[in-house]
């Protein structure tokens, strides 16, 4: 009986976490360059159920020998293992702002590879993003909307001095202060990247991101005055949210049924009248 409690409870927790992941995707549907999270469900190890009894041997002493048989396997529940970003190109839209840049993927040598802007966070560490909604700070440096510095191909900060600068298709930044190449990183296995917040990714794999221009088979272009939209599919996400809610309700009803059965077993069966 208690196994049913655990199994149904695990299902409720898994669907609650899945619902939170879907809600986060919906809340970022207008965030430029946002990559939707895909949640993976895993089952706990199965448990083998065996029945133990005794078998009477036809002898003068009626010898009893222990005996057991396999009943079968039972699943012990499900859990949401992790959320994996969906690295697919989002659609682009015109903004007309010179500080907005859309990174458009071309040919890739690996199916798991993806392109990113190179960013320096507040701690001075290298991070990656697809959000090209940039701005120019008071010192004339090109930054993200959160104040993180945009880097060039040599991991140096880009100083434009003004918002009136040009960016060519190959990522060259032309401004009165500096002419440099926008830092475009290529990671051959983007699944090694983990979301860090503020639309940034950090690398937790053994393979490092490399300069996209120095990598054979990598093709891309940069479009100024445009932004890459989120790749969240609102219709599919809403459908998944409704499905997850129904599954949560089903597990909830199972818990209520077990609770009634346990109440009957504890308070009614065996009651002296």
From TrEMBL:
<comment type="similarity">
    <text>Belongs to the flagella basal body rod proteins family.</text>
</comment>
<dbReference type="InterPro" id="IPR020013">
    <property type="entry name" value="Flagellar_FlgE/F/G"/>
</dbReference>
<dbReference type="InterPro" id="IPR037925">
    <property type="entry name" value="FlgE/F/G-like"/>
</dbReference>
<keyword id="KW-0966">Cell projection</keyword>
<keyword id="KW-0282">Flagellum</keyword>
<dbReference type="GO" id="GO:0009425">
    <property type="term" value="C:bacterial-type flagellum basal body"/>
</dbReference>
<dbReference type="InterPro" id="IPR001444">
    <property type="entry name" value="Flag_bb_rod_N"/>
</dbReference>
<dbReference type="GO" id="GO:0071978">
    <property type="term" value="P:bacterial-type flagellum-dependent swarming motility"/>
</dbReference>
<protein>
    <submittedName>
        <fullName>Flagellar hook-basal body protein</fullName>
    </submittedName>
</protein>
<dbReference type="Pfam" id="PF00460">
    <property type="entry name" value="Flg_bb_rod"/>
</dbReference>
<feature type="domain" description="Flagellar basal body rod protein N-terminal">
    <location>
        <begin position="6"/>
        <end position="35"/>
    </location>
</feature>
<keyword id="KW-0975">Bacterial flagellum</keyword>
<dbReference type="Pfam" id="PF22692">
    <property type="entry name" value="LlgE_F_G_D1"/>
</dbReference>
<feature type="domain" description="Flagellar hook protein FlgE/F/G-like D1">
    <location>
        <begin position="116"/>
        <end position="173"/>
    </location>
</feature>
<dbReference type="Pfam" id="PF06429">
    <property type="entry name" value="Flg_bbr_C"/>
</dbReference>
<keyword id="KW-0969">Cilium</keyword>
<dbReference type="InterPro" id="IPR010930">
    <property type="entry name" value="Flg_bb/hook_C_dom"/>
</dbReference>
<dbReference type="InterPro" id="IPR053967">
    <property type="entry name" value="LlgE_F_G-like_D1"/>
</dbReference>
<feature type="domain" description="Flagellar basal-body/hook protein C-terminal">
    <location>
        <begin position="224"/>
        <end position="267"/>
    </location>
</feature>
């Amino acid at each position: 009986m208690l196994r049913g409690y655990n199994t149904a409870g695990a299902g409720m927790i898994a669907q609650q976490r899945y619902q939170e992941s879907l809600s986060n995707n919906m809340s970022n549907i207008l965030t430029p360059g946002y990559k939707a999270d895909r949640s993976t469900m895993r089952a706990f190890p199965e448990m083998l159920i065996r029945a133990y009894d005794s078998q009477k041997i036809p002898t003068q002493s009626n010898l009893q020998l222990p005996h057991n048989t396999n009943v079968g396997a039972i699943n012990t529940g499900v859990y949401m293992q992790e959320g994996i970003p969906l690295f697919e190109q989002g659609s682009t839209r015109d903004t007309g702002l010179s500080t907005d840049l859309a990174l458009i993927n071309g040919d890739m040598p690996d199916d798991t590879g993806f392109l990113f802007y190179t960013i320096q966070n507040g701690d001075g560490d290298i991070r990656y993003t697809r959000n090209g909604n940039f701005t120019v700070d008071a010192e004339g440096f090109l930054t993200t909307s959160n104040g993180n510095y945009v880097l060039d191909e040599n991991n140096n900060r880009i100083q434009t001095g003004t918002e009136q600068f040009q960016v060519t298709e190959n990522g060259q930044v032309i401004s009165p202060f500096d002419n440099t190449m926008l830092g475009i990183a290529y990671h051959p296995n983007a699944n090694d990247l983990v979301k860090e917040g503020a639309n940034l990714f950090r690398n937790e794999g053994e393979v490092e991101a490399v300069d996209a221009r120095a990598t054979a088979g990598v093709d891309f272009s940069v479009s100024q005055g445009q932004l890459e939209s989120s790749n969240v599919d609102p219709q599919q996400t809403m459908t998944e949210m409704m499905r997850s809610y129904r599954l949560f309700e089903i597990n909830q009803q199972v818990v209520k049924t077990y609770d009634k059965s346990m109440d009957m077993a504890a308070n009614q069966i065996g009651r002296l009248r």
